[in-house]
Amino acid sequence: MQTNILKIIRNVGRRSRNEHSICTQKYMRMRTSAEQRTHNSNNEEYKKLFYLVADDRYFCSHRLPLAIAAKKQGYEVTVVTAVSNYQDKIERAGIRVIPIDFKRGSINPFVEIKTLWKILLAYRKYRPDIVHHVAIKPVLYGTFCALLTRVPNVINAIAGLGYVFTQNHLKALLVRYPMRLAFRLLLNRAPVKTIVQNQDDKQQLSTLINPKKIFLIPGAGVNPDLFSPSEEPVTSTIKVTLVARMLWTKGVGELVAAAHLLRSYNIQIQLIGDPDDQNPASIPIQTLKQWNEEGIVTWQGYQSNIVKIYQESHIAILPSYREGLPKSLLEAAACGRPIITCDVPGCREIVKDGYNGILIPTKDSVALAKAIQTLANDKALRLTMGANGRKRIETEFSEQIINTQVLSLY
Prior knowledge:
It is a single chain. The chain is globular, with a radius of gyration of 27 Å. A seven-stranded parallel β-sheet has the order 3-2-1-4-5-6-7, with helices on both faces. Mean pLDDT is 89; it is low at 1-44. The chain has helices at residues 2-43, 56-72, 87-92, 109-126, 136-148, 162-166, 170-186, 199-205, 252-261, 285-294, 306-311, 327-334, 365-376, 379-397, 399-407, and strands at 48-55, 76-82, 96-99, 130-134, 153-158, 192-196, 214-216, 238-243, 267-272, 298-301, 315-318, 339-342, 357-360. Helix 9 packs across helix 13 (365-376). The chain is α/β, with parallel strands linked by helices.
């Protein structure tokens, strides 16, 4: 009996030692695996890069060159975006696309919760090392999901403060306070950096975000090889071109009023761009068609070959109320065209008054008409300003310069 009891005790002890050995081995394997992950993270930092952008057309026009530059540096790049007609173009560049139903102008809570959930699922499934959110709604939604899934590096690009901060209609006022609160709560967290495009936006956001976490990088840049200068078109009619979404806040109404004032002059004003049904300031398509039919201005809708558009123009114009840093004006300057724009945040960063263009007050169609007339009557001034604008692109706003600054934050 005693012998049997001793055998049982020895067997239990043996099993206990074996189980302890197995547990110890499992622990060591887990520890080694964790140390290996940490080592790999330190040596291959931020390899999985995600962009969150509202729509694929904007991504192609403003962020695709940056994504390609990041890919060349070894990043595995993915874009989460609403898909229209540009998914193939993005994928041909070697970038994965995760489609998502993203409605910029929606405030429907059910739609917004569904969008948030899809972003959260994408971040949780793929575990990006770095996320780059572009524009206000992607910034807020993406940062919330990134913090929940513990993404180690969050880059937020505020491409202008938008109608919520600049307009005083009911919808803007209803959204403004919650948005300011969300900025305070989300954008001051440890892994978050915020990019702004002009000094005014930096100062305004510094009241909500720690200034040390804000980085001023002027715009998305432009490719000076693609957008190249050319001789002015030899025509008796001076062509003035606005390239933008058809929004009242872009100063389109004031430009049409200026066109009325200039009807007796040999000046053609053309509007390039579509309305934006997700923006409250969108101009009704019937209004645009009416202007076109009346011959006040020429509205051509969205055009893909902007280089050709500017090369066939004499003057570029954008009488906007406020911008982040408008790429259309960068493209115009790169093409060697003088610019007329308003003395407002985002626009005055590109144009030095009297050097590469003319700055005017906002919402002033008379001043707009006078500026157009000044440049229309003086070819030498147009050529000088155009050449000066081209110099600024090459030294301050080229794609390579801007992409280098952004990639340094990754």
